[in-house]
Design a protein that fits this description.
By secondary structure, the chain is mainly alpha-helical. The chain folds into two domains: about 60 residues, no CATH class; about 80 residues, no CATH class. The chain is built from ten helices and no strands. It is elongated and about 45 Å long. It starts with a helix and ends in a 12-residue tail after the last helix.
Length: about 160
C-alpha cells in the first residue's frame, strides 16, 4: 500500500496547490475527488486524506497538492473552525450570540466594540448565510463575507482575497 501511495505522490509532483480543496485540504482524497462537488465527495475526500495519513506525506514532500513551506493562514484557520463548528455557528447566528460565534468573530479580527453589530448582522442575515445552497463551510463563509461587504461597519473585517 505504501508503495502505491509513493507512486501516486511521485506522479503528482507537478500538482499545484490549486488542487487542494478549501474545505478538506490537500492529499490523495482531494486529488481523486478533484472536479466533483457536493458533500458526499467532500466527505469521501476528507476520509481518504485522513484514513491514509497522506496529507502529512504530501505536506512533508510538497506533493499531492500540498505545500511544504509556509504558515497556516488565518483563512485556513477560519475555514477549519467553520467546518468543525458549522452546527454550533448556525445555532449561534440564529440567535445572534454564543461562544462559537464569538470565536468566529475573533478569528475574523472583529474588534470588541463591533462584535454586537457583527452578531446582530449574522442574526438578521441568517437566511442568506445558511441558505440551502450553502452546503459547505466555504460556501457559508463566502455568504457571510458577502453580507459583511454590504455593511459599512463590517466591510473592513472581510479577509482580502
Amino acid at each position: 500500500m505504501m508503495k502505491k501511495l509513493l507512486a501516486i505522490a511521485v506522479l503528482s509532483t507537478s500538482a499545484t496547490v490549486a488542487v487542494a480543496d478549501q474545505d478538506i485540504g490537500c492529499g490523495l482524497g482531494s486529488m481523486i475527488m478533484a472536479g466533483q462537488s457536493g458533500p458526499v465527495f467532500k466527505v469521501l475526500g476528507a476520509t481518504t486524506n485522513g484514513t491514509f495519513g497522506n496529507q502529512t506525506f504530501g505536506i512533508t514532500t510538497g506533493t499531492l497538492g500540498c505545500q511544504s513551506s509556509g504558515a497556516i493562514t488565518s483563512r485556513a484557520r477560519l475555514s477549519m473552525f467553520t467546518g468543525s463548528n458549522i452546527d454550533n455557528l448556525a445555532r449561534d447566528m440564529s440567535v445572534g450570540r454564543g461562544e462559537s460565534l464569538n470565536v468566529l468573530a475573533d478569528l475574523m479580527g472583529v474588534k470588541d466594540a463591533d462584535k454586537d453589530h457583527f452578531f446582530q448582522a449574522t442574526k438578521t442575515n441568517f437566511g442568506k448565510i445558511f441558505a440551502p445552497q450553502n452546503e459547505s463551510a466555504g460556501q457559508v463563509l463566502a455568504a457571510l463575507e458577502q453580507v459583511m461587504t454590504q455593511d459599512s461597519v463590517l466591510v473592513g473585517y472581510v479577509p482580502k482575497a
